[in-house]
Amino acid sequence: MGGEDFLSAVGSIANALFLIASVYIYVALLRQINRRDRDPIDTDRGFGAAEVALAVFLIAVFAFSSLGASSAQIVRLRTLDLILNAVVAIGMVLFVAAFLKLRRFNLGELTGLARLSFTRAFLTGLVLLIFAYPLIIFAEWLTARFLGSGSSRQGIIELFSGSQSMEQRVIIILLATAIAPVAEEFIFRFFLYGVLRRYLGRSIGLIVSALLFAAVHVHLPSFAPLFALGICFTLAYEWSGSLLVSMTMHAIFNAITLLALAFPETLQP
After folding, report:
1. Which candidate, 187, 155, 205, places its Cα nearest to that of 54?
2. Running DSSP on this structure, what letter comes out for residue 248?
3. Are 205 and 112 in contact (CB under 8 A)?
4. Can you list the pairs that 143-150 forms with residues at least 24 positions away whose Cβ atoms lie under 8 Å?
5. CA 66/CA 223 separation, integer angstroms
6. Which of 217, 80, 233 is nearest to 153 (CA)?
7. Closest by alpha carbon to 136, among 216, 239, 233, 62?
8. What is the 3-state secondary structure (H, E, C) of 86-101?
9. Would you call 201 helix, strand, or coil by DSSP?
10. Would you give the DSSP letter of residue 222?
11. Are 16 and 125 in contact (CB under 8 A)?
């Protein structure tokens, strides 16, 4: 066996062990969640018919927007489009937050944002994201194996590649590392998962919310990796009891994706 073959074999074994460790950690998180006598987070506490109606409305909006986006082609990226995307994301969060406040929900308590310090949430999110990567890469490998070697470039990469100016790139970076993590985690992990979990159970809520998260990004080659990522985000959120952990994971993931695009020779996919 030559030197290159030996290194390749060692690398394959290391990757396999890393994947096994990742599966073990996330299965352990799920087991700890199920063993608790009380729910670690009460995101579903008091969610009633009004919240179900709002959740159904949001799911319908995401479905129609996904169908429209799948058939649309952006010829030229405009700064106004990026700004509108940011405004829509922020507006949706504010709308849902205002709705829940009017329904007398304590958002600070339900989201657990103050439960952990930022440093602890950041470190927890970083460690859990590191062990989520083998699952994401494995899902991407399965996609390439069964769907062919089509492009796996996600929406954020397409936007960044198609940017026309530094101004657009700055807006995209803010969208990816700040606005999207906050908006998507609040909507998908906190609200939609909370409603689904209350009425359909934890397992179905976990799967359906992750499916919605993957589908809304409207990119078939990235569907399986994003589904795996959504599962990891949800488990991290419920295990930690703080939405700040999944927000941190989401922000770091998007930041690494952009860094990999900016420095492709240093950070390989």
Report:
1. 187
2. H
3. no
4. 143/221, 143/222, 143/223, 143/224, 143/225, 144/221, 147/220, 147/221, 150/220, 150/221
5. 13
6. 217
7. 233
8. HHHHHHHHHHHHHHHH
9. coil
10. G
11. no
Which residues touch 129 (CB under 8 Å, ≥6 apart)? 232, 249, 252, 253
Closest of 85, 86, 51 to residue 192, by C-alpha: 51
Q: How many CB atoms lie within 10 A of CB 49?
A: 7
Q: What is the pLDDT of residues 72-121, one digit of tens each?
A: 455 566 888 888 989 999 999 999 999 999 999 999 989 999 889 999 99
Tokens 């009460």 locate to 42
Token reading at 221: 């080659």
How many CB atoms neighbour CB 40 within 10 A? Answer: 16
- CA–CA gap between residue 27 and residue 3 (Å, rounded): 36
Q: pLDDT per residue over 141-183, tens digit each?
A: 998 888 775 444 556 666 676 677 788 888 888 999 999 999 9
